[in-house]
Specification:
The protein is built from 4 helices and 2 strands. The longest helix is centred in the C-terminal third of the chain and has 50 residues. Strands 1-2 form a two-stranded antiparallel sheet.
Length: 172
């Protein structure tokens, strides 16, 4: 025996509304994971609670890559069908899109400095750790390259100064 149909309207009781939000959010995240696994689809899901807390899910590829792909797709679709009269509408669509992009980038920056990590899954934390490790390797490589260049430059200066010193010593 199935459940009756739920009437779709705002739940007035705050506690019931929060419980429903939590359960439905979990179900939605589960469904997003299922479709990504079953159908090998790239999925990105973003949910904000009424208090502004962010809940997100993305497949193995990062949220940023999926959002960039979406932006490229929606941008090209808009430009294929856009006319001059649509340009004002495009600008009004562009602002929220860019605002969302800025928010994602700011959230990522907080993650990179170790803030707001509670909402990340184990897979997302491992991905973040891998990105930071890769960045650290690049930084160390560049630092070592600069140090070697500086050492070479100082050795050249040392040779030049020794030559000048021996020339001056020969004159004395």
């Amino acid at each position: 025996m199935g459940r009756g149909r739920v009437q779709l309207r705002r739940i007035e009781n705050k506690v019931s509304r929060q419980v429903t939000f939590s359960k439905r959010r979990s179900g939605l995240l589960k469904k997003a994971h299922e479709i990504s696994v079953l159908c090998d689809a790239e999925v990105a899901l973003i949910v904000f609670s009424t208090k502004g807390k962010l809940f997100e899910y993305s497949t193995d590829s990062s949220m940023e890559r999926i959002l960039e792909r979406y932006e490229r797709y929606s941008y090209s679709e808009r430009h294929l069908s856009a006319t001059d009269s649509d340009s004002q509408a495009n600008w009004t669509l562009e602002c929220p899109r860019l605002s969302a992009r800025v928010e994602v980038l700011q959230r990522n920056m907080r993650h990179y400095v170790g803030e707001d990590l509670d909402c990340l899954s184990l897979r997302e934390l491992q991905n973040l750790e891998q990105q930071i490790d890769t960045s650290l390797k690049r930084i160390r490589s560049r630092k070592n390259q600069l140090m070697h260049e500086n050492i070479s430059e100082l050795q050249k200066k040392e040779r030049t100064l020794k030559e000048q010193n021996s020339i001056l010593a020969g004159k004395v």
